[in-house]
Design a protein that fits this description.
It is a single-pass type II membrane protein. The chain is an alpha+beta fold and about 650 residues long. The chain contains 16 helices and 26 strands. Helices cover about 25% and strands about 20% of the residues. The structure holds 2-acetamido-2-deoxy-beta-D-glucopyranose (NAG) (3 copies). The site of one 2-acetamido-2-deoxy-beta-D-glucopyranose (NAG) has 5 residues, from loops.
Length: about 650
């Protein structure tokens, strides 16, 4: 379409099929609306902008109150500090359907291909029916829309699945109802922004009782999911869930949710947590770093205990101090608890979360070689997690949803510096691993009990999508975990050794599709790779990296290894142990006649297999739903 000016400007009124109750509402809204609001939105190379005016029906001129403006363009920072570019991506703005007041606005950086589309999709899913939604491209954003385009199309967007990567686009619609306006500007040679002006009918559906603090809150906050859904609101407070089999194990254990100002995430996380079997509402304590009124009001609504620990500093340093303060607070507040469970505001738990902890928590105070119980699986990535009843142990950081003992917390506090050494740029969980775990291991499930769904601006988007968003999650509760006593050190080592001793050696290139033979009975395989120290003393993980990547496992760090051995479950019946020799204490099991695998010794053919296989893993399974975009971007069929 290059060279041809194609400007599409549509004013359409489409009823979305299937949205029954809301259709009815919209009709009613049209018939007897009192007030209207005027919306101007623009989208272009230089940013985006939005103005909302409210008109009063009586005299049809602007009411004094209620004008909202938000815009983002190139800004001169002043004093010769240069020009600040606008945020690039797709913006979502939500207006209150009765007052046209702006209640949510955010730019999703979809100029990036990976992961952020999932966050946009998450927010769309949590906007209540009836809300007025305004979307616009700021500079560029269609490129990263990906799978989210399907939800947008289902919500009534005509263009979302068909736009080229550089298009400028605006869409004004009523969630669950009709489109007010949708425009797209797809000619990349025109650099002027396009503007849209529409009149919005405001809803005259009676307001739910404002005396109820919940609806008072919903007046001013968007993307809150079932909290503000007037058609099918979440019950408040959430119902008490059923107990789990070992409920008494959870009674003395506080559940600490660390949170800040992202109250959309926090509400979802808390509701999921509080309705998970085994949850004890009065054991939950939210510890706030930043505590805006919107968050504390929400916690009052949910009747959840909270406390605020104001922290100073910037970015990582601030987070580091915050977690230090959190651990201090927990040590002082719950001195007699055997353990505490920690969860971040943007981590969703599986229905089996508490059942899993109820069966494993005792290990913390029983086995001194264990320092944490993780609910998140360090190794259970897509294709490698099959059995919800299997639990493992290995060297790993505390991760999303973990329990540590109060003894460990006290130990931690004594060595935790007020400020991190400027050389220690690592995050707090890595710091705990490096400086406090002292060779101890953690317990974690083969299939995860948590998902880290929140996506921050600093997230490594590719890894997030490749590894974490696609990770399987246990979707039912009350899973009976097998052989938990075997996780204590001696039985574990004994069983591990005996399994390795009886395993079958694999000796071909791990990147060949035929590397792991297909079997019809439970089979253990062992693969020996060379793991040596580099001249300066650190272990050289290069061979480990390639061997793990061949099997689509996490090879980026040594997280998840038990004494130099990575356990990979390639199918329900097949387990492959990657043994690093001579470093691993199990390395002696590799017989002399089998040369440990070394990437540097590969033939050109074998090296090509490695490259091809890893490339295949990194692309397959990543679903590109707006294929048109991919084709245009790469100039060929993807
Ligand atoms: C929450 O508050 C209640 C009432 O003050 C108290 O009994 C309970 O111990 C608190 N729970 C936590 C985890 O702080
Ligand atoms: C549990 O341990 C017993 C004895 O070691 C073993 O026979 C059984 O297969 C184990 N069960 C599972 C599910 O691993
Ligand atoms: C299982 O595999 C073995 C060897 O590959 C084969 O002889 C046997 O028939 C298979 N059994 C079933 C039930 O498929």
């Amino acid at each position: 379409m290059s060279g041809v000016i194609r400007l599409v400007l549509l004013l359409i009124e489409v009823m979305v099929m299937g949205a029954t109750s809301h259709d009815h509402r919209e009709q009613k809204q049209q018939q007897n609306n009192h007030d209207v609001s005027g919306v101007s939105v623009w989208s272009g190379d230089s940013g985006w902008g939005l103005q909302v005016h409210r008109y009063c029906q009586l005299n049809h001129h602007r009411c004094n109150e209620g004008m909202e403006v938000t815009r983002d363009g190139w800004v001169d920072a002043g004093e010769g500090r240069g020009i600040i570019p606008p945020a690039q991506g797709i913006t979502i703005t939500v207006l209150n359907q009765r007052t046209a007041q702006l209640i949510f606005s955010r730019v999703f950086p979809l100029r990036l291909y990976w992961a952020h589309w999932a966050d946009l999709d998450w927010h769309m899913k949590h906007i209540a029916p009836g809300r007025i939604v305004i979307m616009a491209v700021s500079v560029s954003g269609i490129y990263g829309l990906r799978h989210a385009s399907i939800r947008l199309a289902a919500l009534g967007s005509l263009f979302a699945r068909h736009l080229p990567p550089t298009a400028h686009w605006t869409w004004v619609f009523i969630m669950g109802g009709r489109t007010i306006s949708e425009t797209a500007h797809i000619n990349t040679h025109i650099h002027l922004p396009h503007h849209v002006h529409v009149l919005l009918p405001l809803s005259s559906i009676p307001h739910p009782p404002k005396s109820h603090s919940r609806w008072q809150y919903c007046e001013n906050h968007g993307a809150m999911g079932g909290l503000c859904d007037e058609v099918s609101p979440d019950p408040l407070p959430p119902p008490i869930p059923s107990p789990v089999v070992k409920q008494d194990q959870l009674t003395p254990v506080p559940v600490i949710v660390t949170a800040g100002k992202r109250h959309q995430y926090l509400y979802h996380t808390l509701i999921t947590l509080m309705t998970t079997p085994g949850a004890i509402h009065h054991n939950i304590l939210v510890i706030l770093g930043d505590a805006p009124a919107s968050t504390t009001f929400l916690l009052h609504l949910l009747n959840v205990n909270y406390t605020t620990l104001p922290v100073y500093g910037h970015q990582n340093n601030k987070l580091f101090r915050y977690y230090r303060a959190v651990f201090n607070h927990v040590a002082v507040t719950f001195p007699n608890a055997p353990a505490a469970i920690f969860l971040d505001e943007d981590v969703e738990v599986s229905p089996d979360f508490f059942s899993y902890f109820s069966q494993t928590l005792w290990l913390l105070n029983y086995d001194p070689s264990i320092y944490c119980i993780n609910a998140h699986s360090a190794t259970g990535f897509r294709g490698l997690a099959h059995d919800p009843s299997t639990v493992l142990r290995a060297r790993v950081q505390v991760s999303w949803g973990y329990a540590i003992s109060l003894n460990f917390i006290r130990e931690l506090i004594t060595i935790w510096p007020e400020d991190i050494n400027h050389k220690d740029t690592v995050l707090y969980d890595a710091w705990v691993y490096l400086h406090a775990s002292q060779g101890r291991e953690c317990v974690f499930p083969e299939v995860s009990r948590t998902r880290h769904y929140g996506i921050g601006v600093n997230t490594d988007a590719w890894s997030t999508e490749q590894w974490f968003l696609t990770q399987p999650l246990v979707t039912h509760s009350h899973v009976h975990l097998s052989n938990i006593t075997d996780l204590t050190l001696k039985p574990w080592q004994h069983k591990f050794l005996s399994t390795l001793q009886h395993a079958t050696f694999l000796t071909t290139n791990p990147c060949l599709p035929t590397f792991v033979p297909s079997v019809n009975t439970t089979t253990y395989f062992i693969f020996c790779y060379a793991l040596n120290r580099k001249p300066e003393g650190n272990l050289n993980y290069q061979n480990f990296y390639f061997a793990a990547k061949c099997l689509n496992a996490w090879g980026v760090s040594e997280q998840g290894l038990h004494e130099g051995v990575l356990t990979i479950r390639t199918s329900l019946l097949t387990t492959v142990y990657l043994v690093g020799t001579p470093y691993s204490p199990y390395g002696y099991l590799c017989p002399k006649h089998i040369l440990p695998w070394s990437y540097d010794e590969l033939s050109d053919d074998d090296e090509q297999h490695v490259v091809d296989r890893i490339r295949q893993h990194e692309i397959e399974g990543i679903i590109q739903n707006n294929m048109q975009v991919a084709k245009l971007q790469f100039g060929q069929t993807a």
